[in-house]
Amino acid sequence: MSHIATILLLGSGELGREFVISAKRLGARVIACDSYDNAPAMQLADGHEVFSMLDGAALRAAAQKHRPDLIVPEIEAIRTEVLGDLEQEGFTIVPSARAAQLTMNRDTIRDLAAGELGLVTSQYGYAESFAEAQTIAERIGYPLVMKPVMSSSGKGQSKVDDPQALAAAWDYAVANMRGDRARVICEQFIAFDYEITLLTVRHAGGISFCPPIGHRQERGDYRESWQPAAMSAAALAAAQDMAAKVVMALQGGGRGWGLYGVEFFVKGEEVIFSELSPRPHDTGMVTLASQDLTEFDLHARAILGLPVPDSIAARPSASAVILADRDSASFAFEGLGDALALSSDVDVRLFGKPVTRPYRRMGVALARAETATSAVALAKQAADAVRIVYSSADD
Predict the structure, then answer these.
(1) Using one digit for the tens of pLDDT, what is the confidence trace for 108-139?
(2) What's the Cα-to-Cα distance from 347 to each of 229, 248, 285, 374, rounded to whole Å?
(3) The predicted structure's pLDDT at residue 161
(4) Who contacts 214 (Cβ-Cβ below 8 Å, separation ≥6)?
(5) Which position among 110, 131, 305, 372 has the lowest Cβ density within 10 Å, counted as fewest Cβ atoms?
C-alpha cells in the first residue's frame, strides 16, 4: 500500500492519539514513539519505537531506521539539538527545529516573545537556585507564579502569595521539572479577566485562526475548555497579530507549517502573551466537538501541505477532563453509559493510558449546547458520570 507520507511521531499521549487518527485518515503512515510501551498513540499507529525522547542517539537511530518524510514532536522534552542536526541533513521537522528548540523551555520562548518581538508579557525572571528565586521575587513582588521552565501539563506550577510560601513553591517546581535542566521561571501574577488559547495554523496558503478557546485551570493544568470564548473584536485582533508574529519567527530553516497553541491573558482590552506550543494543545480537545475540522485535522492538513480553510467556525462546545486520583495498573471505567445518556450532544473519549497516576488525565467529556456556558455545565456533568474503579490490590 502506498502512503502519502511517513510520519515519525515523537510522544504518543492523548494528543498524539487523535493526531494519528487524523493523519491516517489522510493516508499517512505513522510510527509512534514514547518512553513507555503501549502508549495511547501507539495503539493506533502503523509501528512504534520505545525510547526516551531525551536520548539523542536513540532519536537519531529511529529517524535513520524509518527515514520519515516528517518528524512530528508531540511533547516538549526532546533532544532538540538532534532535531536541528536532522533538519540540516534534510529531514523535515514539524513545524521546524527552531520551533522545537525555542519552545522546549519556557525561558527561550519568553525571551523571543518579549525581547526579540517586543510582545506584551508579564514581568519575569529565571532562577537556578532558591537564592536567585528570592532575588527575583523581591524585584517583581507578590503575588507571583513559579513554574519549571520545562514541565508537562502544568506540573510544578504554583501561585506564591508571600515570601513564606516561596520555599514550598521552589521545592514543588524542582520536583516536577522535566528534562535535564534545573531552572524555574518566576513571573508576575496577572489579575486577568480571562485566559484563552488561540489555535493558529501556519500552512501553504498562509495563516488561519480558530475561534478563541477559554479554559479553567487547577494546579496549572486545564480542567474545562470552551469555544468560542467571548472577547472583543479589538482584543481578538491584538491576539491574532501577536500570534502571527511569534509563529512566523519560529520558522527558522524549516517550513513552519503546522498548528500552534498560543496562550494569552486578557485584562480588559489588554492582551498579554503567556506561552506557545508548536503542536495541538490540550485545551483544543474541545475542537473534537466544536469544529468540523478538529485541531488534529488542521495540524495534519497543514504539515502535509494540504488546503486549510481561511475561515474556521466553531459551534458552542466544551470539554471537561476525567482525572485519576491514585497510582494503579489495574483499573476500569464505569458510568460511560450514564454520561452518554445525558444528551445526544455528549461524547466521551477515553485515552487508553495503561496506568493511572494522581491527577493524570485519563479521558475527556465533550458537549455541545446553545451557549458555551451551557456546554461547560453539560461536559462537567458527563465527566463526573464517568468513574475510575481500581482493583482492590491497589488499595
Answers:
(1) 888 899 889 999 998 889 999 999 999 999 99
(2) 20, 35, 12, 15
(3) 94
(4) 194, 195, 196, 225, 226, 227, 229, 230, 372
(5) 131
Question: What are phi and psi for residue 162, nearest 5 degrees?
Answer: -160, 165
Domain ranges of the chain: 5-93, 123-188, 194-394
The predicted model scores a pTM of 0.91
- How many Å apart are CA 296 and CA 313, to the nearest integer? 15
Residue 309, amino acid:
P
User: 13-52: buried (b, 16+ CB within 10 Å) or exposed (e) per residue?
Assistant: bbbbbbbbbbbbeeebbbbbbbbeeebbbbebbeebbbee
Which CATH number, 3.30.470.20, 3.40.50.970, 1.10.1200.10, 3.40.1260.10, labels domain 194-394? 3.30.470.20
Catalytic residues: 152, 154, 263, 275, 282-283, 361
pLDDT in tens, 350-371: 999 999 999 999 999 999 999 9
CATH code matching the domain that covers 123-188, chosen among 3.90.1680.10, 3.50.70.10, 3.30.1490.20, 1.20.120.790: 3.30.1490.20
